[in-house]
Amino acid sequence: MGALCYAELGTMIMKSGGEYPYLMEGFGPVLAYLYSWTTIIVLKPSSFAIIALSCAEYASTPFYPGCTPPQVVTKCLAAACILIITAVNCLSVKLAYRVQNFFTTAKLLIIVIIVVSGIILLAQGNTQNLRDPFAGATTSFGAIGLAFYNGLWAYDGWNQLNFITEELKNPYRNLPLAIIIGIPLVTVCYILVNIAYFSVLTPIEFLQSPAVAVTFGDRVLYPLSWIVPLFVVFSTFGAANGSCFTAGRLTYVAGREGHMAKIMSYISVKRYTPSPALIFNGFLSIIYIMPADINTLINYFSFAQWVFYGLTCLALIVMRFTRKDLQRPVKVPIVIPVLVVIVSCYLVLAPIIDKPEWEYLYCTVFIVGGLLLYVPFIYYKFNWTQRIMRPLTMHLQLLLEVVPPEKTE
C-alpha cells in the first residue's frame, strides 16, 4: 500500500530524492530539511553499512568453519566493499546500473536454488520446524511493532525508484509498473526462501547461525555448498550498490535545494555523476561500520523512518485538497494512504508505549537538533557561514573536478 502511494507521488511530482520533494510540497522546507538531515546523516549510511557488513560476513564465513569470523576481518571487508561500490558509482552511472542488473540476476538465481531445494526437502517430509511456528513468541503491543521494524527493514526498498525519478525513462509507465511487478515478486521470493530455511534449520539454529544461507548450503548442497555464500555475496553486494546509488541522489537533491552544502549538488565534469554526494555517503558508512552493534541503531532509528513514511503518505492526503492542479497519472483510493498513516502511527508509538527507552528520546533530539544547523546556515544564511563555505567549496570543486548542476524549475 505504501508503494502504491509512492507510485502516485512519483508520477505527480517528477523530482528525485525520495520523500524529500513530497514533504517539501506538502509541508514546506522545514520538515523536508529534517527528513534530509536524518536520512543523509544516519538512515542511508547506516543501511549501506549494515548491508556491507552482511556481504562481508558471508564472504568470510566459509574461511572460518564452525566459528564466527573475527570482527576485524568482517569490518575490513565491509569497508573494502563500501569503497569499491562508491568508486563504481562515482565512475559511471551506466556501470552502476550494469553492476546492479548483474547482481540482481545472481540474487534471483540463488533464490531459485534455495527454494527448489526447500521444496524437495518439504516433499520428503521435513516439516517439523513449521508445525508450531509461533511457539515461545510474545504478543505484546510493543513486541509486534519491533518485529515489524526488523521485518519491514528486510523488505525496505519499495520506495527506492522515487529517489531517481528524474533519471527514469518514461516514469509515468515504468515507475508504477516496477512497483506492481517488483513488490509481489520480492515478497513471494523472501517468504519461500525462509520456508526453505526452516525445512533444515530449527528456530534456535536459525538465530545462532552467523550466516543462515551458508549453514543451509552446508547441510543441503554439499559438496557444492560454496555456491551459496558466493551468490549471497553477489546478492548483498548488489543491494549495497542500490543503497549507495539512491543515497547519493538524495544528498545531491538536498544540496541543490540548499539544505546541504552546495558542493553536494555538484556533478563530475567527466563522469556526469554526483561524486561529492556519493563520497560523503561512503565516508559516513565506513564510520558506521566501527560500532560493535549497529543493529541497535536500526531498532531505534526505524521509528524515525516510519515517522517520515507516515508523513509522506499524509502529504499525499493533504495535496489531494491543497494541490488539486497537479496531474495524477496514477491515483490510488484515498483509503490506502489513510491506512498507511494509521499503520505508521502504530509502528512509531507501539514500542515506545510498551517499553519506553531513553534511546528513542535521543533519536528525537537528534532529529529536532537539525534545526540548530537549519536556522543559521539555511534560514538566515549568515554572512560568516558563507565566508567559510565559499573557499572550501572552491577547493573541493577543483580537487574533485565537479561543477554546479544546470538550473531546474
Automatic annotation (TrEMBL):
Q: Which Pfam families match?
A: AA_permease_2
Keyword annotations: Cell membrane, Disulfide bond, Membrane, Phosphoprotein, Transmembrane, Transmembrane helix, Transport
InterPro entries xrefs: AA/rel_permease1, AminoAcid_Transporter
Q: Which GO terms describe its cellular component?
A: apical plasma membrane
One MF term from GO for this chain?
L-amino acid transmembrane transporter activity
Please write the reaction equations for the catalytic activity of this protein.
L-histidine(out) + L-arginine(in) = L-histidine(in) + L-arginine(out); L-cystine(out) + L-arginine(in) = L-cystine(in) + L-arginine(out); L-phenylalanine(out) + L-arginine(in) = L-phenylalanine(in) + L-arginine(out); L-lysine(out) + L-arginine(in) = L-lysine(in) + L-arginine(out)
Q: How does it sit in the membrane?
A: Multi-pass membrane protein
Principal cellular location given in the protein's record: membrane
List where the protein spans the membrane. 30-52, 72-91, 103-122, 134-155, 175-200, 220-240, 272-291, 303-322, 334-353, 359-380
Q: Where in the cell is it found?
A: Apical cell membrane
* Keyword Transmembrane part of the UniProt annotation: yes
Say which domain of life the source belongs to. Answer: Eukaryota
Query: Could you say which protein family the record assigns here?
Result: Belongs to the amino acid-polyamine-organocation (APC) superfamily.
Record-given protein name: b(0,+)-type amino acid transporter 1
Encoded by which gene?
LOC113051436
